[in-house]
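Meet our chain:
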Amino acid sequence: MPVLNRWWIAVAGVCLQMALGSAYAWSVFRIPLSKEFGWSISQVTSTFLISWFFLGVAAFIGGLWMKSRHPRVVAMTAGLLWGGGVFLASFSAHKLWWLYLTYGVIGGIGLGMGYVVPITVLVKWFPDRRGFITGLAVAGFGTGALFSAPAAGWLIRHVGLMPTFAYLGAAYGIIAIASASFMQFPPEGWVPEGWTPTAKHLSQRSDRDYTLGEALGTWQWWAICLLMSVNTMSGLSIISQASPILQEMGKASAETAAFLVGIVAIFNGVGRIFWSWVSDLTSRKIAFFLMYLVEVILFWTYHSIDSLPLLAGATFLVAMCYGGAYGITPAFAADFFGPREVGSIFGLMMLPWAFAAAAGPYEFARLREVNGNYTQALYLIAGVMTVALILPVLIHPPQGRKRGDERPTGAGLEAEAISPE
């Protein structure tokens, strides 16, 4: 396959992620479902939580499956499950369990299996731009709702609630499967023409490819999990409560808060590209440290902001840092453990992420309910992130070649590429 086609693969990867990231538009269905079928807000919201839980579980499954199957097969299956799950949800009228099974379980499995494919494929095609390219891919996931939310709202008004699921499911499936057809790995040992890794690249990367079992045996794998989970817990706590925060602390109207929450989604996507770009210029650990430092300052001072413009600006920065971890972490995993099994290695990292994504916002909301304000919750997050600042300082690539290895692969090939011999 011609090397230039890697950019078409990148475009297809972004399109695939946008089709999957349409799941962020779930809030559009909350009120219509409650009104039409009498389901409570918590019952409707549980559909989203179920799909997100299965996303975390299925990401690992998708990563493992790519070890034995072509990534195109995994991605197409994921697109079929996601689109099919949403389509089948159109038959869930007065059947909440069917909505949970179709949109939540089937759709969630498709989300997770598909999420890891573009990331795994693109880190292999872009060893020269790992941070930027993974940031670009996950930015597609973060901004998917920018298109699907307005489309869902228009369809609900013009064709009805249940048919909307059918139309959207068909559209998601077609876009995802078409994009998935471009997913493929480069030839073994391939590097971009004219590119050789510099000493800076090699200092940030391991000297060989690790298997999943070997990666789990290193403290670095757990440290990266903790880095992403702490960032998710912190950022998602604010994002999940952005509208009431802006109304209570910034005295914004409901309409203004809703508009600002839309901008928060944009900054979420922008942060995934921006911080990934920073990590390519500096290093993954420096980018994570700077990102954490910004969040520490924000969380220690957030409770005292009473100006709506300043509060909105601080919330946008939190969203940028929250999104940034999703751009940096896949590149971090590829750097530290090699690109060969990054799908399963990064996929398994999504499991602790799923628990952090649920526990953080839940505790944040509980403390707000108990105390009547967000101050204690914000201080708790600020304290945790202050302690966690030590993680990016301490972390470094695992080193040491496995006994019996005679031939460098993956990260080792990069080292060989600049060998003076």
About this structure: The chain has two domains: 3-180, 202-394. The chain has a mean pLDDT of 84. The chain is about 75% helix and 0% strand.
